[in-house]
Amino acid sequence: MKHIDKNNLEDKAWRNKFEGGELSTSDALWDNISASLDKNELGRLQSENYRYKIIAASLILFISLLAAYAFTLSLSVQSSQQALTEAKKEISAQNELLVAQIEENEELAKALAVSKGTVKSRESQLAELLADNESYKKRLPSATPVINNLGTNSGRLSSTPKASIRESMTIKRDAPQSINTYAWQERPASYQASGIKRLKADQYISGSYAALEKTPSLNTRLRHNFAGVMASVGSFDPQTQTNLNSPDVLPSQMIAASQTDGSTSSARTFSTNVVTRDVEESHSPDVAFSYGVMGGFTLADRLILQTGISRMNMRSRTDMAITTTTRINPMFVISADNDAIINPANVEENTFGLINEFDYWSVPLQLGYVLGSGRLQIIPSFGVAADFLANFNQRSDSGINLNPDGEHAYRSAHLSALGSLSFNYFLTPMLAINVEPAYRHALNPVTDVNNRHSSQPALFNLNLGLRFHLN
Amino acid sequence: MPNSIEDERLIKGCLKNDRASQFALYKKYAGQLMLVAARYANHQEDAEDILQEAFIKAYDKLDSYQSDSPIFHWLKKIVVNTALNKIRANYHMYPLVDDHQDKDQPSGMTNAIEHFYFEDLVKMIQSLPEGCRLVFNLYTIEGYTHVEIAKKLKISTGTSKSQLNRAKALLREMIRESERDSYEAYRQK
């Protein structure tokens, strides 16, 4: 690529002149570069935030569409169930009508058979039957006490004409067997042709129910859909590490140095006062609370997609021990007398505690698999959550707000991995109580890159909730 | 040629967006790169603008840096490209009458160049017309061929050659004039 004509002495002279040369830059140049880098970093963070916001908005839109779809389906299931109930009622009414007709026909046939044993012609049989009927009617008021004592059949008697026929049958039940046999052989043609028996009618009706119950296959598709509310309590571990790459971090930080130049009666001394500061920090877990709404949508037979939104309030504790050491280091000791002025190191220790409080909005997206059936379901599920920092507060043990200006090093959004095991106990077919131990871990550090602390928190919590199943 | 251990450490720090490493890398190479930027710019402020933009680009694109070449060469390339982009929008380059053949190198010019401070030579280069300045820097100092320059600046190779010759002629004139002024000043003393 490069031509470099070594024979061209003039070109060579130019190149040599600039080889390794340096020009000074103004002091402001690095400040400008640093400011631009900060601005770019901020822009990058904002674009990350924007990306998270887009993801959250898409998620909410997706959930809304899914909820609308599920709601429409549940409405159609409801209307199917309503239609089923109405059909059941109608069939039940038809069933009652059929039973009544069958009973009436049976009674008529029996009456006919009975009467056939006494008269020759059908007309005369009927006439006699009607006469009997009239006579029973007349006897009815006086016969009532007797009828009431007739035992098992007494409950079926009444003062209606049909009941009186039955009464005649009851009274004449000691008729010869042959008559009954004959009567069944001579049953009306229309009755025989219909072929309807009570048993067959029952079978027909139950078959109709079965057919109707098969129709709404949506029931199967929606059976794990739910909407619910939850609250949780848990332990939040910030998992904070000291970032050794941070420019702010030195294991032992020299915070002041001064020189003294004095003289004593015997010798002249020159010493340096050095103040160093060692900071030890320990970060410990503290409590976490959250509450929110959840929804689940059936993706396949037992596979569900769970999502929702929750507000999480988490706390962690930082204990700090600051050791400040002041030393006078003599650089020249001219005389042994000077030893007297060499002071031992002055060590001062301070300890104090901080409470870090975080408020996050969290939008989870989890895939779960429904195990078990009946009253108890167990649902292992895994997924991710987009966590948005709503508020950060740092205060001392005595309650002093340590970041009144609201500035902090925590990112406004991050992603976490989620895992949980949900136990659903159905109190009713539609209402279940839910107990769910869950664990989440941030996928990346939640603090800025240059911050002296790098935190990738973990949260273990126990969710308690109620779930309304929509199927 | 691999980077030194220190450079590797700085690069790793810069990749982690560590401001201290970024500052250390800047501190180490800003002077040399300022000289490169100054050769392409009209004046100091322009050169600093170029350098600032180049460093920001470099930190942003550092993940694309291949460590088979030294980091300084990579940074220098960014400075040159930034300078070209900055200047390209502002100039129109036309072919010049090639009335001066580069083969006729005037005697004594090499010695004269060596006797000047490079700061003064930079000022001379800065006073060249932009087209001449670009071609002179790319050909003489960076070592690009005329074909490469023509491609880079979207001009013909003839234009590149004529601009180079024009640049050299102007620089020789400036060097001679400067020598004359120095001699006159000496005589007046």
Structure description:
- The complex is a heterodimer of chains A (471) and B (189).
- Chain A is of the alpha+beta class and 471 residues long.
- Chain A has helices at residues 9-18, 27-116, 122-148, 161-171, 177-185, 189-194, 198-214, 218-221; strands at 226-237, 240-242, 252-263, 268-298, 303-332, 346-369, 376-396, 413-426, 431-442, 453-455, 458-469.
- The relative contact order of chain A is 0.10.
- Chain B is mainly α and 189 residues long.
- Chain B folds into 2 domains: 5-89, RNA polymerase sigma factor, region 2, helix turn helix motif (Rna Polymerase Sigma Factor, Chain: A); 109-187, Arc Repressor Mutant, subunit A, CATH 1.10.10.
- Chain B is built from 9 helices and no strands.
- Chain B has helices at residues 5-15, 19-40, 44-60, 71-88, 109-115, 118-126, 130-142, 146-153, 157-188.
- Chain A binds chain B through residues 1-4, 8-18, 20-26, 29-30, 32-34, 36-37, 40-41, 245-247, 449-450, and chain B through 13, 16-23, 26-27, 30-32, 34-35, 38-39, 47-48, 51-52, 55-56, 59-60, 102, 105, 109-110, 113-114, 116, 118-119, 121-122, 139-145, 148, 168.
Structural class of chain A: alpha+beta
**Biggest protein-protein contact in the assembly:** A-B, 36 and 46 residues
| Shape designation of chain B | globular
Mean pLDDT across all amino acids of chain B: 84
CATH superfamily of the largest domain in chain B: RNA polymerase sigma factor, region 2, helix turn helix motif
- Identify the CATH class of the largest domain in chain B: Mainly Alpha
According to CATH, the fold-level topology of the largest domain in chain B is Rna Polymerase Sigma Factor, Chain: A
Question: Approximately what portion of the residues of chain B adopt beta-strand conformation?
Answer: under 5%
